[in-house]
Write the structure tokens for this entry.
Amino acid sequence: MGMKAWIYAMVAVYKRNLKILRRQKQLLVTPFILPIVVLILVSTIMGGSDSWSIGLIDKSNTGASHELINSLESVHSELAPYFNVIETNPDKAKNAVEEGRLHMTVTIPEDFQNTNKVYTDTYNINTDMMKNVNFRLEHGLLKEMDDRGDLQIETNLLTEKSYAVPRSAFFAGSAFLLSLMLSATIVAANLFSFDRENRTRKEILLTPVGIHAAGYGITLASGTVAILASLPSLLLGIFAYQLNPQHLLQVYLIMIPVIIMCATLGMIVAHFLKRFHILQPIIIITFFGTFFAAGGFAGVSMLPPIARGFSSFWPFSYIFEWLNPLLHGFNTYLSPLQYVLLILIGLLGVLLIPYVYRRELKGNISGGQ
């Protein structure tokens, strides 16, 4: 068979797969919805901004207490104010802290003007988040002391960097990358499994074109869906989560070999797991865990030692580590070695597809079935 006929066959399978996906809309729910759910979930849990929610109770109601309140409300980073005061009622603030709905309550007592003491109540004193809240409070108190001329030793705290991005923007960038990888993997797995369960491979076997042309058609369809599925996450990140994507076209181009490899991995998973109801939860949990434990939720350098060790050999972790800096404008390009590795990954994905189909045919097509 000539190359032209083989390409026609691959494109025909590609078009057929798109029609299948339009008819079987349940196959598109996860790629389009899960990254958005992850983004909303993580930004809700972690605040999604650089401001920590606190309660601020002023029992003194004096000029000195008002100055302290102004200092706490005005202290800020490059991104946003340190604190978002959302509760001033003592009882409601106490209950909110106990229930974990507030990070901290700061109480200015009645004798503040004489004692210069404030009292705090926190939900959990041991987490890194609470240490960060306490640091911010100390920064605010030092600012107030400096404004009053009571600070004998001036501290120069480096709390701002011009290139800093909001936490919500980092989450949005990771969700965008997640959508590309997840969509390519799960759509390819679903289409591969659909072919098996509906025995459409027999139709292709009757043609003079190799069966692995179906695999390349699946890869093309998965890549198309991955790009389309990434758009809702990208737009949500831009308009709701302060994402300001840089080098977006370059990121999409770099992701092409990754998408090819993800599609191949999806077919491999479908080859071994066989059924929709088995393979879909495993793929979802894998990528969900990858986001939180391998560089999507936070940079690998910020993860616990066990997670850092896991990320060192987990390939999807490198996608977050390499492309998030590019997406946020920290870097303008990858290193030559990284480009070479990505190209090799894409080539490996292409070369593995015929092997997957040979194994599939050997194990499943026998006795006329």
